[in-house]
Automatic annotation (TrEMBL):
Places the protein is found: Cell membrane
Location, primary (coarse class): membrane
PROSITE patterns in UniProt: G_PROTEIN_RECEP_F3_4
Name of protein: Extracellular calcium-sensing receptor-like
């Protein structure tokens, strides 16, 4: 048989009665796929003409719940008809007391439910709730205590007696829904007092409960349909603040939104950026964990949801406990003061030092004495592990294996979570919820006729309390408790969020003590004033006094920057040292700051310091080397001058105009010395001197060589008969050629210095730690003309020397000039690309090297052979030898 057919058969079973009056049917079902297909079947089975469907969404229930908890209410409109509960056989146990006004209550007195098997052929057996919860029972007792306290006092509601009707929701949504329906309806056969209109309101104008958010979600939807106010004492899910979905829901428990805000501020206060989130698989756990993860950002190490059927016993199981030590736990208010975790010593090494927010606690005078006088069969049997049932004849124990109670049991002799009133937090919420309702009823009673809040300024009738009217007054209630707390609800039905920050401190044999180390008060408008902590009173996990560090990555110190790890949350990063020339002087910077051009980063990359100034100095190794080479060249030239002076009368010195030889040697000396102007810190005068001195001395030198080359060439041409050329190239003409050539270079340099002279220049490359001091050429055209003119003279000299290379003579000076010019030209041709590509001071080094290399080339090629003959082969230093023609 298909599932739909089974549901149809059950629907027919549920309507054995025949009705004769028009009915309005309210069908409350658990929504699941294809629910709409059942509505026509239900209408036909009940012989109905109209129906209104109210959806109760709850995704954790099974398909069978639709068939099991299909509850139908009806109302007949003809005279003499009243509202009755159809499915009376499924009624739940109730704890009630009559009164003029009845307050409903929902408490999860048991933690689990044993579900009976479903055959779909007969009415299901009642469910059995197990695992009695002493803590929740204390909450229920607090509600009864508050009601009886108000009845005894009689000042708030004179001549009105309050009653109560309390159901056990058994910690499950479908039980909570069934209990809510019981509060809406009435027991079998009993007439409903105060019923009016087309909706059956029952006998309860307000409901206190339920505790869990999941149960309240279910209950709030159905109560909201009838505008019956619901005041929860422990449901904190932020989703319940939606008044469009839950118009009649209020609570004395702050919303998870505020608790999450407090937890986020706590995490940020201690600088924790790497946290894990563990929650139970229900509306409270999932909702709170999701809000926390969203508010905290992306820095969530893990986000785990644990099934509620396992709970803490699964999380702290023996297999898991070994890996949980050394962890700092942050507790939500659901377990921040839970003795079920703080009492067992096996959890102390894990949870000591835990910290969490707890609901404000308070003392309720007289409650402890009241708690010592309860009597509920299930409570008594669970507390003393005995049975009130008489065992069968011949047996010592009853069917459950418990011995019979003796009657000598006394609650005062037992200390447990039920009788412990040192941490009255949720009990205080229950207490406040009762008094909020009573103050609303008092306000209703104090309404002045003709000035009421309803239509035509009417006042409510306290003899016939309408839930929607009471809802209005509860929303606007404002009162102060005996300890000075102001109780009121905002537009979402939420109270002011105030939490105690508690620390689990291990006291040896005394166990865990909950020490208040701070508070969170949402009423403080200043953001930094909401959370107040006394850090000196905190004991962390392992009895440490130092704040634990919880980060995915350590703080990046100054001198580094954060580099995000791929595929990791934003708080997981690597610390990368700032690049050269960049600094960071703060922790956890995202980008390093680049230094100004004239500054460079220190070794720690924490500060910008002035760049080191670099130039070709007399103190560095390169400068010293060039200085030595230059001075040695000058010294060598002076030695040659001395040698030539001592042997000035010899033929080899007198040959080819000895005056030009001495002038050439002097110019070579100046060439060697002018290289010294390129060494040292550039200044305005040194920059102008180095280039002009270089240009003029080298032109002087090349002019002398040119003159000697012309003389050699003309001298041999003049030996031809009838030649008169030699008279045009005498000593005076040679001097004129030298002066003219040098004068041209002097004019170029003068114009250069006048128009755009060389000047010092600071080169500050971004990628270098140095400020390079150079001499900027100023006019590149003038610099090019200086070099070009030198090159022109050198090429002309080379050309003429090349023509005279084969002249017949034992000592052909033209050959020596040819070799010297080849070296000179090769050096300066190579100089141009090397100079352009050399960085910084090395361009200056290149220029000095070219000057020295070309000077040594001239000195060695022209004068070394002559010195060799003068000093080592004097026999060849004769006119006869020099004039001898070689083949």
């Amino acid at each position: 048989v298909s599932l739909h057919q089974q549901q149809l058969n059950w629907a027919y079973m549920s309507f054995p009665i025949k009705v004769k009056c028009p009915l309005q049917l309210f069908v409350i079902v658990v929504s699941y796929p294809d629910t709409g297909e059942l509505f026509p079947l239900i209408r036909r089975a009940a012989c109905l003409t109209t129906a209104e469907i109210v959806y109760i969404s709850f995704r954790l229930v099974s398909y069978s719940l639709l068939c099991r908890w299909l509850v139908l209410y009806c109302s007949c409109k003809d005279d003499g008809s009243n509202c009755r509960l159809i499915s009376a056989s499924l009624s739940l146990p109730v704890l009630e007391k009559n009164g003029d006004i009845i307050l409903g209550g929902l408490f999860s007195l048991h933690d689990t439910v044993v579900e009976p098997s479903l055959s779909f052929t007969a009415m299901p057996a009642p469910t059995q709730c197990t695992r009695f919860n002493f803590r929740t029972f204390r909450w229920m007792q607090t509600m009864i205590f508050a009601i009886e306290e108000i009845n005894r006092d009689g000042t708030l509601l004179p001549n009105i007696t309050l009653g109560y009707k309390i159901y056990d929701s058994c910690s499950t949504p479908h039980h909570a829904l069934k209990a809510a329906m019981e509060l809406l309806g009435n027991e079998k056969g009993r007439e409903v007092a105060g019923f009016s209109g087309s909706v059956c309101h029952g006998t309860v104008p307000v409901v206190i409960g339920d505790g869990g958010s999941t149960q309240s979600l279910v209950v709030a939807r159905i109560l909201g349909v009838f505008h019956i106010p619901q005041v929860s004492y422990f449901s904190s899910c932020a989703c319940l603040s939606d008044k469009n979905e839950f118009p009649a829901f209020l609570r004395t428990m702050p919303s998870d939104f505020f608790q999450v805000d407090a937890l986020v501020q706590l995490v940020k206060h201690f600088g924790w950026t790497w946290v894990g989130v563990i929650a139970g698989d229900d509306a409270y756990g999932r909702g709170g964990a999701n809000i926390f993860a969203d508010e905290l950002g992306a820095c969530v190490a893990l986000h785990e949801i644990i099934p509620k059927n396992r709970g803490y016993r699964f999380l702290f199981s023996p297999h898991s406990r070994t890996g949980l030590t050394g962890i700092q736990w942050l507790a939500s208010e659901a377990w921040s003061t839970a003795t079920v975790l703080s009492t067992p010593r096996k959890y102390h090494n894990i949870l000591q030092g835990s910290m969490g927010f707890a609901i404000r606690h308070a003392e309720i005078p007289g409650l402890q004495t009241f708690l010592h006088h309860p009597f509920l069969v299930s409570f008594w049997e669970e507390m003393f592990q005995c049975s009130l049932a008489v065992p069968a004849e011949g047996q010592k124990n009853n069917s459950q294996g418990k011995p019979p109670c003796t009657g000598a049991e006394e609650l005062k002799s037992i200390t447990n979570i039920y009788s412990d009133v040192s941490q009255l937090r949720i009990s205080y919420n229950v207490y406040k919820a009762v008094y909020a309702i009573i103050h609303a009823l008092k306000a209703m009673r104090s309404c002045v006729k003709g000035k009421g809040p309803f239509l035509l300024q009417s006042c409510p009738d306290l003899q016939n309390v309408q839930p929607w009217q009471l809802l209005h007054y509860i929303k606007h209630v404002v009162y102060s408790t005996t300890i000075g707390d102001e109780i009121k609800f905002d537009e979402n039905g939420d109270p002011v969020a105030m939490y105690d920050l508690v620390n689990w401190q291990f006291r040896g044999n005394e166990g865990i003590e909950f020490v208040i180390i701070g508070k969170f008060d949402e009423t403080n408008t200043a953001l930094n004033q909401k959370l107040q902590i006394q850090e000196q009173n905190i004991l962390w996990n392992g009895n440490q006094t130092k704040v634990p560090l919880s980060v995915c990555s350590s703080i990046c110190p100054p001198g580094t920057r954060k580099a995000i790890r791929p595929n990791f949350p934003i708080c997981c990063h690597d610390c990368v040292v700032c690049a050269a020339g960049e600094i960071s002087n703060q922790t956890d910077v995202i980008e390093c700051e680049r230094c100004l051009p004239e500054f460079w980063s220190n070794d720690e990359r924490t500060a910008c310091i002035p760049k080191q100034v670099e130039f070709l100095s007399f103190t560095d190794s390169m400068g010293i080397t060039l200085l030595v080479i230059s001075l040695f060249g000058s010294f060598s030239t002076c030695v040659v001058i001395v040698i030539f002076s001592c042997h000035r009368s010899t033929p080899i010195v007198r040959a080819n105009n000895s005056e030009l030889s001495f002038l050439l040697l002097i110019s070579l000396t100046l060439c060697f010395l002018c290289s010294l102007t390129f060494i040292g810190q550039p200044s305005k005068w040194s920059c102008m001197l180095r280039h002009t001195a270089f240009g003029i001395t080298f032109v002087l030198c090349i002019s002398c060589i040119l003159g000697k080359t012309i003389v050699v060439l003309i001298a041999f041409k003049a030996t031809l008969p009838g030649s008169g050329v030699m008279k045009w190239f005498g000593p005076a003409q040679q001097k004129a050629i030298i002066i003219l050539c040098t004068l041209v270079q002097a004019v170029i340099c003068t114009v250069w210095l006048t128009v755009d002279p060389p000047s010092p220049h600071r080169l500050m490359p971004r990628e270098s730690a140095l400020v390079i001091l150079l001499c900027d050429e100023g006019s590149y055209v003038a610099f090019g003309l200086v070099l070009g003119y030198i090159g022109l003279l050198a090429c002309l000299c080379l050309f003429l020397a090349f023509l005279a290379r084969k002249l017949p003579d034992n000592f052909n000076e033209a050959r020596l000039i040819t070799f010297s010019m080849l070296i000179f030209c090769a050096v300066w041709v190579a100089f141009v690309p090397a100079y352009i590509s050399s960085p910084g001071k090395y361009s200056t080094v290149t220029e000095v090297f070219a000057i020295l290399a070309s000077s040594y080339g001239l000195l060695c090629c022209i004068f070394a052979p002559k010195c060799y003959i003068i000093l080592l082969r004097p026999e060849k230093n004769t006119k006869k030898y020099l004039m001898t023609r070689t083949g």
